[in-house]
């Protein structure tokens, strides 16, 4: 599946949005990818995750555990695990920090794939990976549907994506006039 096909899937789902968005990272952008809209269609989710899972397998073989950050990564993590015939667990924020709950655990040294929906700065991915490592897991790689950093995000392990885009991001004190003129919308899930 090539980049244009992936982005068309987002357009078809009404998930490639334009406006003024406050991202989970705290940065502002005129572009937002609402993965929940893409993943609400199980057939589309399966198609996208099958392509991403194949890319992961081509590079790293079978990986028995997929870990994703809640909230945005849960569905894509589950579908990736299904495609890879792996187990799926997730980390949740407890007092602002990722932690395993619900009895989720891993074997010491277990090979893990960390899966996100969209990577912008890589902050959530790095936090998730640190939690996996602190729990004894060996993070082989990370994967996401969209890398909106254009390949610039460093998550500390190799990052495989279905598509890379370079969507502009701005700090609050460096907004261009066209964004300053629009109210910011915060569609992300970091505070959940």
What does this structure look like?
The protein is built from six helices and eight strands, in the order αββααβαβββαββα. It is α/β, with parallel strands linked by helices and 192 residues long. Strands 5-4-3-6-7-8 form a six-stranded mixed β-sheet. It is globular and about 50 Å long. The relative contact order is 0.20.
Output the helix-strand order: HEEHHEHEEEHEEH
Q: Quick one: overall form? A: globular
Helix and strand composition category: alpha/beta
Q: Biggest sheet, strands in spatial order?
A: 5-4-3-6-7-8
Oligomer description:
single chain
The residue ranges in which pLDDT falls below 50 over 5 or more consecutive positions are none
Report how far apart the termini are: 32 Å
Residue-averaged pLDDT, rounded?
93
Q: What about the largest sheet?
A: 6 strands, mixed
| Number of helices, counting only DSSP H or I runs of 4 residues or more | 6
Task: Evaluate the radius of gyration.
Answer: 16 Å
* Helical residue percent band: 25-40%
How much beta, percentage-wise? 25-35%
What is this entry, summarized?
It is built from six helices and eight strands. With 192 residues, the protein is of the alpha/beta class. The strands form two sheets. The chain has a six-stranded mixed sheet. A two-stranded antiparallel ribbon has the order 1-2.
């Amino acid at each position: 599946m090539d980049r244009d096909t992936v982005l068309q899937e987002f357009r078809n789902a009404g998930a490639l949005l334009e406006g003024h968005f406050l991202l989970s990272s705290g940065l502002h952008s005129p572009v937002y990818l609402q993965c929940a809209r893409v993943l609400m269609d199980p057939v589309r989710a399966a198609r996208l995750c099958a392509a991403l899972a194949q890319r992961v397998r081509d590079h790293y073989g079978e990986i028995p555990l997929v870990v994703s950050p809640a909230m945005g990564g849960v569905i894509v993590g589950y579908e990736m695990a299904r495609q890879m015939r792996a187990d799926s667990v997730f980390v949740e924020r407890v007092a602002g920090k990722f932690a395993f709950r619900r009895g989720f655990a891993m074997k010491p040294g277990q090979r893990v794939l960390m899966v996100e929906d969209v990577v912008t700065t890589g902050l959530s991915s790095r936090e998730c990976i640190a939690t996996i490592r602190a729990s004894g897991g060996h993070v082989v790689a990370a994967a996401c549907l969209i890398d909106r950093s254009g390949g610039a995000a460093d998550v500390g392990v190799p990052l495989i994506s279905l598509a890379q885009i370079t969507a502009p991001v701005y700090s609050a004190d460096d907004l261009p006039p066209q964004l300053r003129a629009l109210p910011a919308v915060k569609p992300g899930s970091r505070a959940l």
